[in-house]
Amino acid sequence: MKKIKGIIAIAAIMMLSAFTTVSNGYKVGDIATDFNLKNVDGTMVSLSDYKDAKGFIVIFTCNTCPYAVAYEDRIIALDKKYASKGYPVIAIMPNNPEIQPGDSMEAMKQRAQKKGFTFPYLMDEGQKIYPQYGATKTPQVYVLQKTSKGNEVKYIGAIDDNYQDAKAVKTKYVENAVDALMSGQPIKETETRAIGCSIKS
Amino acid sequence: MDFYFYDMRILCLLVLVLLMSCKNESQKNGTVVDAHSPVEVRERPLEIYDFEGLKPFLKTTSDTVYVVNFWATWCAPCIKEMPYFETLNARYKNKNVEVLLVSLDFPKKYDSHLRPFIKKNGLQSKVVALDDADFNSWIPQVDPDWSGSIPATLIFNKDKREFYEQSFTYDELETELLKFIK
C-alpha cells in the first residue's frame, strides 16, 4: 500500500513538473547559447563565426506558419537594414520536419531561394536550441547584444504590431530595440507578445 | 418620455428573450446532438470582433462554465483537437457549460477557409472570429502567461479561471472541465 502511494506521489510530481516547465527559457538579461546549425547552403553556422557583429537578430521562423510567411519580407528588410550595421538576422527553423514535412531542409532551401533570403536559414536539428531559448512559436525574435559575458538577450517577442499589413504598423518593436542598442539608449519595450504557430516537436 | 423608451426597451428585450427561448426549445426538440451521430448543419452568420468586442465573452457573473478555445483553420494541432471541444459541447451543454471557439484566421481567409470549415464540419459550438492585429495589446489580457502560440484554451466560471497554452486529448480536456463543475 505504501509502495502504491509512493508511486502515485512520484507520478503526481512528474505530472506537475511536466506542466510547470513550459515557461522556461531566456529572460531579458540572460546570456544566450551559441549553436552550430546547418544552413540551407550546406555550411554550418555559429554566432561565433560573426567576428565583427555587435549583436544578432535571432528569429525562430518556418515555411509553414502563415504568420511566419506574412513576415518573410519584413525579415529580409530587417537583415538588409541591420546586417551592415552589425546586427545580422539569423533565422532558425525549430519545427520537427518529420511532423511538419513542409519544413524539411529541402523545403527550407527552396523557400530561401525563392524569397532570396540574405541571411542564414538554419535547421534546429534534433530541436535542441529552441527549448534553451524558450521559443514557443514561429515567428519569435530574440535580439542579442555581444558583451564581454557573451550574447546577452535584450529583446524577446514580435517583429511589429501588425502582422496583416506592414503599412499599418505603428510600432516596429525589433527596429526600435536594435536602434536603441546602437545608440546606447534603454529599450522601451523589451518583451512583446504575438500570436504564432506552436513549434511542432 | 424616458419612461416610454425604457418600457420599449424592456418590451424589445422580452420579445427577444421569448424568441430566443422558442428557438432553443425547437432546437432541443428537433435534434438530439451527439458528436458521434450526424449533426444538423445550422448556418449562422459569423460574428467578428476586435478584442474590445470579445472581452465580454471572457468573463461571467453567471453559473455557467465557459470553455474558450483559440484556434485557426491553418493550425494543425487546433484542428486535431477540435472534435474534442465539439464532443465536450455536446455532452455538457445541458450542464451549464458553453464552448466558444475563437478563430484567429486571417480576415481575408474568412470566406475561403473559415466559413467553409465551419459548414463542412457542422460545428455546433459557437464560433466567433477575432480580428485584432495588435496582438501585444490583448494577449496578456487573455492571460498574463500566454506567449501567443495556439492552440490555447481558457476555462473559467465566475469564481476561477485556468489558462492552457497546449493541445488537449478529450480526456485531458474533460478532466480540466470537471474541476470547474461541482
From TrEMBL, chain A:
Sorted UniProt keywords: Signal
Gene Ontology MF terms in the entry: antioxidant activity; oxidoreductase activity
InterPro entries according to UniProt: AhpC/TSA, PRX-like1, Thioredoxin-like_sf, Thioredoxin_domain
First and last residue of the signal peptide: 1-20
Annotated Thioredoxin domain residues: 26-183
PROSITE patterns: THIOREDOXIN_2 (PS51352)
Record protein name field: AhpC/TSA family protein
Domain of life: Bacteria
UniProtKB/TrEMBL annotation, chain B:
GO molecular function annotation: antioxidant activity; oxidoreductase activity
Protein name: AhpC/TSA family protein
CDD domains linked: TlpA_like_family
Domain Thioredoxin residues, every copy: 13-182
Organism lineage string: Bacteria, Pseudomonadati, Bacteroidota, Flavobacteriia, Flavobacteriales
Cross-referenced PROSITE patterns: THIOREDOXIN_2 (PS51352)
Species annotation: Gelidibacter algens
Any coiled-coil regions, as ranges: none
